[in-house]
Amino acid sequence: MMNQSVESESITSLHQPKWLSNETIRTDVESVNNNINLDKIKSDVENMSKIHHIEILKILKKNSSIKLNENKSGVYINLSFLSENTLTELQNYIHYIHDQEHSLNQLESQKTEFKNTFFLEKGVKDEPTLSYSTFAK
User: What burial class does residue 110 get, using C-beta atoms within 10 Å of its C-beta: 0-12 exposed, 13-18 middle, 19+ buried?
Assistant: First the structure.
């Protein structure tokens, strides 16, 4: 029995140094995940239109502790200082915008299919070109 526990300790010590605790690893992983989320938020916001930038600024202005740096090029925010609630609200807004854009694109595609099928003169009227691929999604 004693021999088994010694082997177990030596195996774990090979994988993880004694100075590196599970809490340190967890904190580092959370930090990396947070940085990835911040980069995603940053790139999503940068690719949005001015209307959405204004809505995001309204979200950020709700929290008076957020410092907004403005110059002639735009408004700059250090995302790493935002609270979890504010980050969650930003992520929810970004998700909402993506969902709305996806829905609008689907509707526009369906509208184009209907227009081409029912309102444009075609050489062969017996073979409708309407596809139901957009309805299945």
Answer: middle
Per-residue pLDDT tens digits for 15-31: 544 544 555 444 444 55
pTM: 0.60
Sketch the domain layout of the chain as residue ranges: 8-114
Whether 127 shows a pLDDT value over 90: the answer reads no
Bridge partners (DSSP) of residue 71 are: 74
DSSP E strands, 3-135: 69-71, 74-76
Q: Measured between alpha carbons, how far is 61 from 115 in angstroms, rounded to an integer?
A: 44
Enter the DSSP assignment of 80.
G
Residues 6+ apart with CB under 8 A from 48: 56, 97
Q: Give the gyration radius of the chain's Cα atoms.
A: 27
Facing residues of 70 across strands? 75
